[in-house]
Amino acid sequence: MEVPGDKSISHRSIMFGAIANGTTRVWNFLKGEDCLSTLDCFQKLGVTIIEHDQYLQIEGKGFNGLIEPTEILNVGNSGTTSRLILGILAGTPFHSVLIGDDSIAKRPMSRVTGPLRIMGANIDGRNDGEYTPISIRGGQLSPIHYQLPVASAQVKSSLLFAAMQAEGVTEIIEKSETRDHTERMFQYFGGELEKDGLTLRLNGPSTLNGRDIVVPGDISSAAFFIAAALIAPNSELLIKNVGLNQTRTGMLDVLKDMGAYIEVIPHSIDSFEPYGDLIVKSSNLNAVEIAGDVIPRLIDEIPILALVASQAEGTTVIKDAEELKVKETNRIDTVARELNKLGCNIVPTEDGLIIEGNTKIRGGIVDSHGDHRIGMMLAIASLLSEESIHIQGTDAISVSYPNFFEQLQSLVQN
Protein backbone atom coordinates (compact mmCIF):
# COMPACT_ATOMS: atom_id res chain seq x y z
CA MET A 1 0.00 0.00 0.00
CA GLU A 2 0.93 3.68 -0.21
CA VAL A 3 -0.26 6.48 2.04
CA PRO A 4 -1.07 10.04 0.91
CA GLY A 5 1.60 12.71 0.53
CA ASP A 6 3.20 14.19 3.62
CA LYS A 7 1.05 16.96 5.06
CA SER A 8 3.92 19.07 6.41
CA ILE A 9 5.82 18.93 3.11
CA SER A 10 2.68 19.60 1.04
CA HIS A 11 1.98 22.79 3.04
CA ARG A 12 5.53 23.99 2.56
CA SER A 13 5.61 23.16 -1.15
CA ILE A 14 2.84 25.71 -1.74
CA MET A 15 4.52 28.32 0.45
CA PHE A 16 7.99 27.97 -1.06
CA GLY A 17 6.56 27.78 -4.56
CA ALA A 18 4.70 31.04 -3.92
CA ILE A 19 7.70 33.01 -2.60
CA ALA A 20 10.19 31.61 -5.14
CA ASN A 21 10.82 33.06 -8.58
CA GLY A 22 9.55 30.95 -11.47
CA THR A 23 7.63 27.70 -11.74
CA THR A 24 7.37 25.03 -9.05
CA ARG A 25 5.72 21.69 -9.81
CA VAL A 26 4.53 19.42 -7.00
CA TRP A 27 3.74 15.72 -7.40
CA ASN A 28 1.83 13.69 -4.78
CA PHE A 29 0.46 16.83 -3.11
CA LEU A 30 -1.89 15.95 -0.25
CA LYS A 31 -5.39 17.08 -1.17
CA GLY A 32 -6.57 17.05 2.44
CA GLU A 33 -8.56 19.97 3.81
CA ASP A 34 -5.62 21.47 5.71
CA CYS A 35 -3.35 21.66 2.67
CA LEU A 36 -6.19 22.94 0.51
CA SER A 37 -6.60 25.78 3.03
CA THR A 38 -2.96 26.72 2.40
CA LEU A 39 -3.53 26.58 -1.36
CA ASP A 40 -6.60 28.80 -1.08
CA CYS A 41 -4.82 31.39 1.09
CA PHE A 42 -1.98 31.81 -1.39
CA GLN A 43 -4.35 32.10 -4.31
CA LYS A 44 -5.97 34.97 -2.42
CA LEU A 45 -2.48 36.49 -2.12
CA GLY A 46 -2.26 36.60 -5.89
CA VAL A 47 -0.35 33.38 -6.59
CA THR A 48 -1.35 31.42 -9.70
CA ILE A 49 -1.75 27.72 -8.85
CA ILE A 50 -2.86 25.36 -11.62
CA GLU A 51 -4.03 21.81 -10.89
CA HIS A 52 -2.94 19.33 -13.57
CA ASP A 53 -3.84 15.62 -13.61
CA GLN A 54 -0.60 14.52 -11.97
CA TYR A 55 0.85 17.63 -10.35
CA LEU A 56 0.30 21.17 -9.11
CA GLN A 57 1.93 24.06 -10.95
CA ILE A 58 2.77 27.14 -8.88
CA GLU A 59 3.85 30.35 -10.57
CA GLY A 60 5.98 32.10 -7.99
CA LYS A 61 6.76 35.81 -8.04
CA GLY A 62 8.96 36.11 -4.96
CA PHE A 63 7.96 37.78 -1.71
CA ASN A 64 7.46 41.08 -3.54
CA GLY A 65 4.96 39.50 -5.92
CA LEU A 66 2.39 38.78 -3.22
CA ILE A 67 -0.56 41.17 -3.24
CA GLU A 68 -2.96 42.44 -0.61
CA PRO A 69 -5.90 40.02 -0.38
CA THR A 70 -9.37 41.37 -0.97
CA GLU A 71 -10.82 38.59 1.20
CA ILE A 72 -10.11 37.26 4.68
CA LEU A 73 -7.57 34.40 4.69
CA ASN A 74 -9.37 31.37 6.13
CA VAL A 75 -6.93 28.75 7.42
CA GLY A 76 -9.70 26.29 8.32
CA ASN A 77 -8.44 23.74 10.85
CA SER A 78 -4.77 24.15 9.95
CA GLY A 79 -2.35 25.26 12.64
CA THR A 80 0.52 24.90 10.15
CA THR A 81 -1.12 27.30 7.71
CA SER A 82 -1.94 29.89 10.36
CA ARG A 83 1.47 30.03 12.00
CA LEU A 84 3.72 29.69 8.94
CA ILE A 85 1.80 32.17 6.79
CA LEU A 86 2.21 34.80 9.53
CA GLY A 87 5.96 34.56 9.05
CA ILE A 88 5.56 35.20 5.32
CA LEU A 89 3.08 38.06 5.81
CA ALA A 90 5.32 39.66 8.47
CA GLY A 91 7.40 41.33 5.76
CA THR A 92 4.70 42.19 3.22
CA PRO A 93 3.76 45.89 2.88
CA PHE A 94 0.00 45.30 3.09
CA HIS A 95 -2.79 44.28 5.43
CA SER A 96 -4.19 40.76 5.88
CA VAL A 97 -6.65 39.15 8.27
CA LEU A 98 -6.57 35.47 9.30
CA ILE A 99 -9.44 33.43 10.65
CA GLY A 100 -9.98 29.72 11.19
CA ASP A 101 -12.50 27.26 12.58
CA ASP A 102 -13.51 26.87 16.22
CA SER A 103 -10.47 24.72 16.97
CA ILE A 104 -8.01 27.25 15.53
CA ALA A 105 -9.71 29.99 17.55
CA LYS A 106 -8.53 28.20 20.73
CA ARG A 107 -4.94 27.50 19.69
CA PRO A 108 -2.17 29.79 20.99
CA MET A 109 -0.63 32.18 18.45
CA SER A 110 1.43 34.46 20.70
CA ARG A 111 4.33 32.03 20.44
CA VAL A 112 4.52 33.28 16.82
CA THR A 113 3.09 36.80 16.97
CA GLY A 114 5.37 37.78 19.87
CA PRO A 115 8.74 37.30 18.12
CA LEU A 116 7.33 38.52 14.78
CA ARG A 117 6.40 41.80 16.49
CA ILE A 118 9.96 42.07 17.78
CA MET A 119 11.17 41.70 14.19
CA GLY A 120 8.92 44.57 13.07
CA ALA A 121 5.55 43.15 12.05
CA ASN A 122 2.38 44.99 13.10
CA ILE A 123 0.03 42.40 14.53
CA ASP A 124 -3.23 42.61 16.43
CA GLY A 125 -5.89 40.11 17.31
CA ARG A 126 -8.08 38.66 19.99
CA ASN A 127 -6.46 38.77 23.43
CA ASP A 128 -3.64 40.93 22.03
CA GLY A 129 -2.81 38.52 19.23
CA GLU A 130 -3.04 35.33 21.25
CA TYR A 131 -5.98 33.97 19.23
CA THR A 132 -7.61 34.37 15.82
CA PRO A 133 -8.93 36.45 14.19
CA ILE A 134 -5.48 38.01 13.68
CA SER A 135 -4.76 41.17 11.73
CA ILE A 136 -1.25 41.67 10.32
CA ARG A 137 0.40 44.45 8.37
CA GLY A 138 3.94 43.60 7.39
CA GLY A 139 6.81 45.87 8.23
CA GLN A 140 10.50 46.40 7.54
CA LEU A 141 11.84 43.37 9.36
CA SER A 142 15.00 43.27 11.44
CA PRO A 143 16.93 40.11 12.27
CA ILE A 144 16.43 38.53 15.67
CA HIS A 145 18.35 36.38 18.13
CA TYR A 146 15.66 34.16 19.61
CA GLN A 147 15.57 31.10 21.84
CA LEU A 148 12.38 29.11 21.27
CA PRO A 149 10.44 28.62 24.52
CA VAL A 150 8.75 25.49 23.14
CA ALA A 151 9.89 22.69 20.84
CA SER A 152 7.80 23.67 17.83
CA ALA A 153 8.60 23.28 14.14
CA GLN A 154 5.73 25.65 13.37
CA VAL A 155 7.22 28.50 15.40
CA LYS A 156 10.71 27.84 14.05
CA SER A 157 9.41 27.78 10.47
CA SER A 158 7.41 30.98 10.87
CA LEU A 159 10.49 32.82 12.11
CA LEU A 160 12.60 31.39 9.29
CA PHE A 161 10.11 32.71 6.72
CA ALA A 162 10.35 36.13 8.34
CA ALA A 163 14.15 35.91 8.49
CA MET A 164 14.23 35.34 4.73
CA GLN A 165 12.92 38.91 4.39
CA ALA A 166 15.09 40.59 7.05
CA GLU A 167 18.42 42.32 6.36
CA GLY A 168 21.11 40.54 8.35
CA VAL A 169 21.63 37.35 10.36
CA THR A 170 18.72 35.86 12.29
CA GLU A 171 19.70 33.26 14.89
CA ILE A 172 17.13 30.79 16.20
CA ILE A 173 17.94 28.38 19.02
CA GLU A 174 15.69 25.34 19.40
CA LYS A 175 14.71 23.86 22.76
CA SER A 176 15.16 20.41 21.19
CA GLU A 177 15.33 19.17 17.62
CA THR A 178 12.04 19.37 15.71
CA ARG A 179 11.07 18.40 12.16
CA ASP A 180 13.31 20.14 9.66
CA HIS A 181 11.22 20.20 6.49
CA THR A 182 11.42 24.00 6.24
CA GLU A 183 15.22 24.04 6.44
CA ARG A 184 15.54 21.25 3.86
CA MET A 185 13.14 22.87 1.41
CA PHE A 186 14.70 26.31 1.88
CA GLN A 187 18.09 24.92 0.88
CA TYR A 188 16.55 22.90 -1.97
CA PHE A 189 15.10 26.14 -3.39
CA GLY A 190 18.54 27.77 -3.25
CA GLY A 191 18.60 29.35 0.21
CA GLU A 192 21.62 29.32 2.50
CA LEU A 193 21.30 28.24 6.10
CA GLU A 194 23.84 27.36 8.76
CA LYS A 195 23.04 24.78 11.43
CA ASP A 196 25.20 24.31 14.52
CA GLY A 197 23.61 21.84 16.93
CA LEU A 198 20.29 23.38 17.94
CA THR A 199 21.20 26.81 16.52
CA LEU A 200 20.07 27.98 13.07
CA ARG A 201 21.51 31.05 11.34
CA LEU A 202 19.97 32.63 8.26
CA ASN A 203 21.50 35.67 6.55
CA GLY A 204 18.70 37.51 4.76
CA PRO A 205 17.23 38.63 2.54
CA SER A 206 16.96 35.43 0.51
CA THR A 207 16.12 34.91 -3.16
CA LEU A 208 14.68 31.51 -4.07
CA ASN A 209 14.01 29.79 -7.39
CA GLY A 210 11.22 27.36 -8.27
CA ARG A 211 11.89 23.61 -8.18
CA ASP A 212 10.18 20.30 -8.88
CA ILE A 213 9.02 18.49 -5.74
CA VAL A 214 7.93 14.89 -5.24
CA VAL A 215 6.20 14.65 -1.86
CA PRO A 216 6.88 11.34 -0.06
CA GLY A 217 4.14 9.47 1.79
CA ASP A 218 3.27 10.86 5.22
CA ILE A 219 4.77 8.77 8.02
CA SER A 220 2.18 10.23 10.41
CA SER A 221 -0.54 8.73 8.22
CA ALA A 222 1.39 5.48 7.82
CA ALA A 223 1.59 5.26 11.63
CA PHE A 224 -2.01 4.07 11.89
CA PHE A 225 -1.44 1.16 9.54
CA ILE A 226 1.91 0.34 11.13
CA ALA A 227 0.06 0.07 14.45
CA ALA A 228 -2.69 -2.05 12.92
CA ALA A 229 -0.20 -4.52 11.46
CA LEU A 230 1.65 -4.82 14.77
CA ILE A 231 -1.32 -5.44 17.04
CA ALA A 232 -3.70 -7.36 14.74
CA PRO A 233 -2.93 -11.10 14.79
CA ASN A 234 -1.20 -12.75 11.82
CA SER A 235 -0.61 -9.51 9.93
CA GLU A 236 2.10 -8.44 7.51
CA LEU A 237 2.11 -5.15 5.63
CA LEU A 238 4.31 -3.41 3.04
CA ILE A 239 4.07 0.40 2.96
CA LYS A 240 5.84 1.94 -0.03
CA ASN A 241 7.47 5.34 -0.57
CA VAL A 242 7.00 6.74 2.92
CA GLY A 243 9.04 9.67 4.26
CA LEU A 244 11.93 8.67 6.52
CA ASN A 245 13.13 12.08 7.71
CA GLN A 246 14.92 11.33 10.99
CA THR A 247 13.12 14.22 12.72
CA ARG A 248 9.86 12.31 12.06
CA THR A 249 10.81 8.67 12.72
CA GLY A 250 10.67 8.69 16.51
CA MET A 251 7.69 6.31 16.46
CA LEU A 252 9.70 3.70 14.55
CA ASP A 253 12.49 3.92 17.14
CA VAL A 254 10.09 3.56 20.05
CA LEU A 255 8.21 0.66 18.46
CA LYS A 256 11.46 -1.19 17.83
CA ASP A 257 12.36 -0.68 21.50
CA MET A 258 8.99 -2.27 22.31
CA GLY A 259 9.91 -5.33 20.23
CA ALA A 260 8.18 -4.50 16.96
CA TYR A 261 9.18 -6.16 13.70
CA ILE A 262 9.72 -3.22 11.36
CA GLU A 263 12.09 -3.51 8.41
CA VAL A 264 13.16 -0.22 6.83
CA ILE A 265 14.23 -0.31 3.17
CA PRO A 266 15.61 3.13 2.24
CA HIS A 267 15.57 4.28 -1.37
CA SER A 268 18.92 5.28 -2.83
CA ILE A 269 17.45 7.83 -5.24
CA ASP A 270 18.65 11.36 -4.47
CA SER A 271 15.94 13.51 -2.90
CA PHE A 272 15.77 16.53 -0.63
CA GLU A 273 13.77 14.33 1.76
CA PRO A 274 14.74 10.70 2.59
CA TYR A 275 12.11 8.05 1.92
CA GLY A 276 11.73 4.30 1.51
CA ASP A 277 9.57 1.25 2.18
CA LEU A 278 8.48 -0.36 5.45
CA ILE A 279 7.68 -4.01 6.14
CA VAL A 280 5.69 -4.52 9.35
CA LYS A 281 4.60 -7.79 10.98
CA SER A 282 2.50 -8.72 14.03
CA SER A 283 4.69 -8.55 17.13
CA ASN A 284 4.65 -9.24 20.84
CA LEU A 285 5.29 -5.84 22.40
CA ASN A 286 6.61 -4.71 25.77
CA ALA A 287 6.02 -1.45 27.64
CA VAL A 288 8.56 1.37 27.54
CA GLU A 289 8.98 4.92 28.84
CA ILE A 290 8.59 7.57 26.13
CA ALA A 291 10.10 10.91 27.12
CA GLY A 292 12.73 13.54 26.42
CA ASP A 293 14.13 14.44 23.02
CA VAL A 294 12.17 11.74 21.18
CA ILE A 295 8.85 13.48 21.93
CA PRO A 296 9.09 16.16 19.18
CA ARG A 297 9.97 13.37 16.72
CA LEU A 298 6.68 11.55 17.38
CA ILE A 299 4.34 14.19 18.81
CA ASP A 300 1.61 13.54 16.21
CA GLU A 301 1.87 9.77 16.68
CA ILE A 302 1.23 9.72 20.43
CA PRO A 303 -2.52 8.97 20.09
CA ILE A 304 -1.89 5.81 18.06
CA LEU A 305 1.11 4.92 20.26
CA ALA A 306 -1.24 5.03 23.25
CA LEU A 307 -3.44 2.41 21.60
CA VAL A 308 -0.42 0.25 20.79
CA ALA A 309 0.79 0.55 24.39
CA SER A 310 -2.61 -0.66 25.63
CA GLN A 311 -1.87 -3.97 23.89
CA ALA A 312 1.73 -4.32 25.12
CA GLU A 313 3.00 -6.22 28.16
CA GLY A 314 3.41 -3.90 31.16
CA THR A 315 2.83 -0.21 31.87
CA THR A 316 3.93 2.42 29.36
CA VAL A 317 4.62 5.96 30.60
CA ILE A 318 4.63 8.97 28.26
CA LYS A 319 6.16 12.18 29.65
CA ASP A 320 7.32 15.62 28.44
CA ALA A 321 4.40 15.85 25.99
CA GLU A 322 2.72 19.07 27.20
CA GLU A 323 2.45 20.22 23.58
CA LEU A 324 -0.37 17.70 23.12
CA LYS A 325 -2.62 20.06 25.07
CA VAL A 326 -2.64 22.66 22.26
CA LYS A 327 -3.28 20.44 19.26
CA GLU A 328 -6.69 20.13 17.56
CA THR A 329 -7.90 18.93 20.95
CA ASN A 330 -6.19 18.49 24.29
CA ARG A 331 -4.90 15.13 23.13
CA ILE A 332 -3.75 14.05 26.57
CA ASP A 333 -7.29 14.20 27.97
CA THR A 334 -9.03 13.14 24.75
CA VAL A 335 -6.93 10.02 24.18
CA ALA A 336 -7.43 8.86 27.75
CA ARG A 337 -11.15 9.59 27.83
CA GLU A 338 -12.03 7.96 24.51
CA LEU A 339 -9.86 4.84 24.86
CA ASN A 340 -11.07 4.32 28.42
CA LYS A 341 -14.61 4.15 27.01
CA LEU A 342 -13.42 1.08 25.09
CA GLY A 343 -12.02 -0.70 28.15
CA CYS A 344 -8.50 0.71 28.32
CA ASN A 345 -6.88 1.80 31.57
CA ILE A 346 -5.15 5.10 30.82
CA VAL A 347 -4.43 7.86 33.33
CA PRO A 348 -3.78 11.36 31.96
CA THR A 349 -1.04 13.40 33.64
CA GLU A 350 0.11 17.00 33.34
CA ASP A 351 2.57 16.12 30.59
CA GLY A 352 1.53 12.72 29.25
CA LEU A 353 -0.16 9.40 29.88
CA ILE A 354 0.19 6.26 32.00
CA ILE A 355 -1.08 3.27 30.01
CA GLU A 356 -1.75 -0.21 31.38
CA GLY A 357 -1.09 -2.95 28.84
CA ASN A 358 -2.83 -6.19 27.87
CA THR A 359 -6.21 -4.46 27.54
CA LYS A 360 -9.16 -6.15 25.89
CA ILE A 361 -10.87 -3.62 23.60
CA ARG A 362 -14.67 -3.66 23.83
CA GLY A 363 -17.39 -1.93 21.84
CA GLY A 364 -18.88 1.45 22.53
CA ILE A 365 -19.64 4.96 21.32
CA VAL A 366 -16.65 7.27 21.00
CA ASP A 367 -15.96 10.70 19.50
CA SER A 368 -13.08 12.20 17.53
CA HIS A 369 -13.93 15.66 18.96
CA GLY A 370 -13.05 17.08 15.55
CA ASP A 371 -9.46 15.75 15.73
CA HIS A 372 -8.38 13.72 12.70
CA ARG A 373 -5.70 11.75 14.53
CA ILE A 374 -8.09 10.79 17.33
CA GLY A 375 -10.63 9.62 14.74
CA MET A 376 -8.12 7.40 12.92
CA MET A 377 -6.77 5.99 16.18
CA LEU A 378 -10.29 4.96 17.23
CA ALA A 379 -10.86 3.32 13.84
CA ILE A 380 -7.74 1.18 14.35
CA ALA A 381 -8.99 0.28 17.84
CA SER A 382 -12.15 -1.13 16.24
CA LEU A 383 -10.04 -3.83 14.55
CA LEU A 384 -9.40 -5.33 18.00
CA SER A 385 -12.99 -5.41 19.23
CA GLU A 386 -15.45 -8.24 18.71
CA GLU A 387 -18.21 -5.73 19.37
CA SER A 388 -19.11 -2.75 17.22
CA ILE A 389 -17.54 0.65 17.85
CA HIS A 390 -19.43 3.73 16.70
CA ILE A 391 -17.16 6.71 16.04
CA GLN A 392 -18.72 10.16 15.96
CA GLY A 393 -17.07 12.98 14.03
CA THR A 394 -15.25 10.90 11.42
CA ASP A 395 -15.51 13.74 8.89
CA ALA A 396 -12.54 15.34 10.68
CA ILE A 397 -10.27 12.66 9.17
CA SER A 398 -10.49 14.35 5.75
CA VAL A 399 -8.15 17.05 7.12
CA SER A 400 -5.15 14.77 6.48
CA TYR A 401 -6.37 11.47 5.00
CA PRO A 402 -9.40 11.79 2.70
CA ASN A 403 -9.48 8.10 1.66
CA PHE A 404 -8.54 6.60 5.03
CA PHE A 405 -11.58 4.37 5.43
CA GLU A 406 -11.38 3.07 1.86
CA GLN A 407 -7.78 1.96 2.40
CA LEU A 408 -8.55 0.52 5.83
CA GLN A 409 -11.45 -1.50 4.44
CA SER A 410 -9.30 -2.77 1.58
CA LEU A 411 -6.59 -3.96 3.94
CA VAL A 412 -9.07 -5.66 6.27
CA GLN A 413 -10.63 -7.54 3.33
CA ASN A 414 -7.19 -8.69 2.16
TrEMBL record:
It is found in: Cytoplasm. It comes from the Bacteria. SUPFAM superfamilies: EPT/RTPC-like. Coiled coil: none annotated. Phosphoenolpyruvate binds at K7, G79, R107, Q154, R331, R373. It catalyses: 3-phosphoshikimate + phosphoenolpyruvate = 5-O-(1-carboxyvinyl)-3-phosphoshikimate + phosphate. It is an enzyme of class 2 (transferase). Keywords: Amino-acid biosynthesis, Aromatic amino acid biosynthesis, Cytoplasm, Transferase. Pfam families: EPSP_synthase. Its EC number is 2.5.1.19. Its main location: cytoplasm. 3-phosphoshikimate binds at K7, S8, R12, S152, Q154, D300, K327. The active site is at D300. PROSITE patterns: EPSP_SYNTHASE_1, EPSP_SYNTHASE_2. Residues 2-408 form the Enolpyruvate transferase domain. Pathway: Metabolic intermediate biosynthesis; chorismate biosynthesis; chorismate from D-erythrose 4-phosphate and phosphoenolpyruvate: step 6/7. Monomer. Belongs to the EPSP synthase family. Catalyzes the transfer of the enolpyruvyl moiety of phosphoenolpyruvate (PEP) to the 5-hydroxyl of shikimate-3-phosphate (S3P) to produce enolpyruvyl shikimate-3-phosphate and inorganic phosphate. PANTHER family: AROM/DEHYDROQUINATE SYNTHASE, PENTAFUNCTIONAL AROM POLYPEPTIDE. HAMAP family: EPSP_synth. This is 3-phosphoshikimate 1-carboxyvinyltransferase. It comes from Bacillus carboniphilus. The lineage of its organism: Bacteria, Bacillati, Bacillota, Bacilli, Bacillales.
